[in-house]
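Case study.
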Amino acid sequence: MVMDKTADILVIDDEQVIIDAVLKICALEDYSVDSAINTKTGLEKISKNFYPIIISDIMMPDGDGFQILDTINKYKKDSVVIMTTGFSTVENAVNSLYKGALSFIPKPFTVDELLSVLFRAKNYIKIIKEEKSFSPQQRDKALIYVTCPAKYFRLGHSTWMVQEREGSVLVGICDIYMKAIESVTNIEMLQPEDELIQGTACATLTSSDERIHKVLAPLSGRIVEVNNNVINNPLLIEKDPYFDGWLYRIIPANLDYEIKYLIPCSSDRL
Amino acid sequence: MFKKIGFRLIFAVAFTSLVIIGVFAFFNVQSQSNGLTAEVERHANQLSETVVSSTRVDMMLNQRDRIQQTISSIGSQPHIRDVRILNKIGEIIYSSDQSSINQMVDKNAESCYACHAEDKPLEQISITERTRIFKPHQDSARIIGIITPIYNEKSCWTAECHAHPDDQKVLGVLDVSISLAEVDKEILKSKIEIVIFAFAAVLIVGFIIGLFVKKWVSNPVNDLLSATQQVSAGNLNYAIKEIGDDEIGKLASSFNNMTKKLAEARLQLFQSDKMASLGRLAAGVAHEINNPLTGVLTYSSFLLKRTKDNSEFQEDLKVIVRETIRSREIVKSLLDFARQSVPKKNPADLNDVVDKAISVVENQLSIKKIKVEKKLEADIPKITLDSNQMEQVFINLFVNAADAMEKTGGTITVTTHLISLAPFGTTQIKRATCRKRHSLIDNEFKIDGLPAIKVKVISDNNEGIIHIDPVYGKHYNNYDVGFKINKNAKFVCPECNVSLVQEDKLCPKCGSPILVFDLGPEGIYEVCSSENTDWEKWDYIESAGVQEYVEIKVSDTGCGISNEDLHKIFDPFFSTKGQKGNGLGLAVIWGIVDNHNGTITVDSEVGKGTTFKIRLPLTQQR
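After joint prediction, the assembly is written out as follows.
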């Protein structure tokens, strides 16, 4: 493998079969892929080349995927990281997103699942790039995407939550997530009385190009109300993601503990 | 037998009744004997008066034969021992016993003493003073004697015989003695009756008390006793049948209640043990299965995409994808189950956790007469930990300690304190691989309870596995291969035979080859290959410097653990408790402590006790 040729995607996984599978899948959509069989080679490759997208396993014999995330954060690389693991605990998912990963795919995944995430990653990069092309003054006016309001907390770049006065919590999807999906045609949601678990899927969106995107819950709790307006009109989420476009009203189960893995929207962390 | 509560009660009651009957009988016999004697005395007195008055005329007429005849006939009556008349100088003039006539009686003899005590005879003395009770011989029956003085009267000195001068007041005495044999027999008879009655009463009282004691005390106490034996043998479902509503009955129902609570608590402990270990198992299985499942799912869904035109393939591939997704859901539900055991760490005060754990088992321990002594260091900084899981660790340790002291009772001592440790000798190597990334951690072989690092050694034509101590600096390596390792021996990975020897470097202490292990992100670990040299080096951990830990010690004064068992106790399914334990308790504890980046070690001496030592680093990574 030629080292200095920059590919679109770097796959880091200790299982060759998974690297091969990802290679084949990515070829379907014409992504070029480089791979690393352990953390060490992965980190070497990252330090030498720039990869827009990195798909990393979390548990490898010589280290974990969080090291990759930490390195990228440390050197302020603009790579988008997608974490995946066979040990898909809620902790791993939430921690990945907290540390800046764009998404978390539990193993095993299907071709479509991976392609949907890659599609979102590609769009996300496009959005960020576009935003950066504006000067800070222009940025407010251009309004490429709406950041979530202060007092809100977000799970990575996917979902948000805000505490209401009565102790209940509203849960919804971040604008940048919606922008990266492009037009949503259908939304599948849970029922009232169902339990949300932080870091597991709480809604499934279908975009106009038939891609399926799973939305991870920012918080655990019992659903007390589902926003029916959103079910009837999924476009409402795109129109007003932070207010009228909320998904669920829940009674949180373990707010104090789980909020530590959410990013306050008032911080300027990306 | 005297140790039985029933017997003691019977004895106490019988003794009391014996004393009461005894005292009563004593006074009863006393008064009976007095009454009988008084009766005889009165009778004797009457008799004396009769003799005196009946012989009076004969005396006046000085008809001595008739007097003697009267006295003889009276004296021949049964019970009357003798009747005699003495003159004033003490000579027996008349007597029922003819042989004693004309004998002199000394004035100082006991029969005369009452009157002649002061030389001069008394003239008027009362009946009691005139009466005497005596035994002529040691063996003979008692005799009551009564003296009746015969006073001088006018008719006496005016009688024709003129035997008595008129200035003489007492002419002589009549002495009647009556045998008390009948009376004594009577008294003895009632004494015997009373003794028989007393013994009969004691026996009957004892028997009746015995019956009630058996019904109200012995039987219920025996029931209680066998119940406690059942419970101590582990049968917590044993319940005592209703045994009344007195104090013992209440004790029994409270005992039943206690065993019920104990059974519930035990079930809960057992369950949480089981849950935790199953959770860990599920998590491990999920991880191992998910990787190959990913291969199946990605390739099949990939094929599905590529064979869109071939409907025949599509059908089959759809089945594969569908079923793989189904497997994925099954594994996911396993993980959901496991999630319960994933630590939820929060900053917590370790002393609070210890206190809470103690409060959970306190009752159980006090039943077993086990004291808990706390020596907790104040001001321990908060540690990031899962307080529920840590509590579980302490509860398990306390329960184990209690089991070790079940028969004897004893003390559990819990201490917490802050310590600073150099990494040398304390840090455990949890991950070590060869250059080709084969894990060298041998879960089958443990040194001091921790999985050791395995190395294959090839010396001449021999091959064997040596084990390196996973604790940095402790150097309890195991070189037990059954052959001599010579200088040119090779040290290789047991899986791929790649050399584990550090090239171009020799041990600075003895010049032997150096073994090197890849610890991933924690750098490399080097150790001298010679059995007798303790040189080792781990730069990554040395550079971290001194670390602070909280050390928690749980000591008991129980039966201890044999050396043989000591290194096996953290193994899953190893148990010395037979049916009582599932052998997962300490394995779970080990897992929890490990999850908190801590270490747990054990010291034990058979017969003296066991100490578990847990060290948790103050700074925790998540």
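Observations recorded in class. The CA atoms of residues 492 and 499 of chain B lie 4 Å apart. The mean pLDDT of chain B is 81. We will return to this complex in the next lecture.
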